Input
Amino acid sequence: MVNKIKIPRTMSTQHPDNVVTPFFAESSVIKGDDEVKEAYYVFSHLNCHEQMWDYEGKEVDNFVVKKLLSRYSHFFTENILGEDYFLTLRVPNPSWEKAEAKVLLETLESIPRSFDAAKLFYGRDVAPIFEVILPMTTSSVELNRVYYYYRNFVVGKQKRRFFQNDVTIAEWIGEFKPDEINVIPLVEDLPYVLNCHEIVERYLADKLVEWQRVFLAKSDLALNYGMLASTLALKLALAKLEEVEERTSVEIYPIVGFGSPPFRGNLRPGTAKMVVEEWCNVQTFTIQSAFKYDYPGKDVLKGIEAINSRRKKKCEHIDEEKAKQVIKKSSEEYRKTVLLLADIVNRIALYVPGRRERKLHVGLFGYSREVGGKTLPRAIPFCCALYSIGLPPELIGLNSLSSEELDFAFEVCSLEEELNFAMRYFNPRTAEMFDLRVDVVNEIDAERNEEYVKITNEILDLLGKNRVELLEEKIVQAARMRRFLG
Output
């Protein structure tokens, strides 16, 4: 395995759920050179160990390593990029993103060039980039294609000669390093999350490695199946990965992709300690833009320290049969309800401001054709749209559960805290408009934010009068009160 180093515990991502524009950004949309500045900022000021460098669905700087080392040499002379702090590339998955497929190959080809830049800077062999994240992973075959393409076609070509009796490629332009890369599966859809242990074990079968990282997504899982189903699925998946660790003697280091609202993980500076205690068998937690930019600096640092100061350990396992039963019932109810809301969600999402320069992304959400083939926006604008009309998505999908099933959910998840948070932003008017049963409201004794309810009423009125030119302003106003966009 490449770079036998400490595994990071806090990963900064580029997911655009922030309301406040970072001080280093030239505009409200973070793009291009701003993201290079952001990488330095999260390393040097926030003490995030790792920055996800996202090539999926966006144009990104291919020369980030060279720029970081040349612009911020005072920091990276003492803090080795690739040993103390890490850049991890998130690449397109050609199985799902055909239009972006060749970006994967270009990105893999850039890794040896980054190695050369670091070697020149440090005067020794250092691999500043040695891992890639493959989104929407559904099989070990997809992982192996990336792993072996790099090994056999990026690095492997250096031994080839141009023609008979001529020099090798390596003799002409230099060696290609690192020799191998680590491929991290990012598993995002329910069947594959519940089966991720098999995907990982098959991938490891022909490799002599000491550790393997596995990335489990929360946002898209929640978007597709609801908050409760996504939470229970992740807990089951993490338990199964512990079993893989025991069978293979390979250390498994899970990463979870949590966002600010409970729907997407409930990870904010003030909840960080609680979240890492609940998810004790997770090694690396992602922090997204709202965590970094929508709270006072001292609170952000305290939250990151809560993540960095703990160590991964085994968690108490939950009843698999009960969990799968609750997943099935709650997700079916959730999807049925979301279908009723799809039109208004899509309408509002058009006015949710973007915070990163991104291209269209291939989402996983889809419904059967017999119900009209409804589609939804990505998780952040989806979540923002529902919060903006006073219907936090955390409340959707729980009505189908029996008292016993709800008791189970409250026992194994931090459901009470999460629903208490959501209830502050609930507007009963919205539930009445769509004739939605939100029985769990009666179980939660939370103080409602009446000022927030007023804003959501204004948004509903604007929609009713089709005065959409004022929507973005009100959406942002509501988001500032929550301290996250979506």
Residues 360-372 have pLDDT under 50 and may be disordered. The beta strands are 10-12, 50-54, 86-90, 131-134, 182-187, 211-217, 251-257, 284-287. The chain has two domains: 10-308, 321-482. Residues 110 and 322 are 47 Å apart (CA to CA).
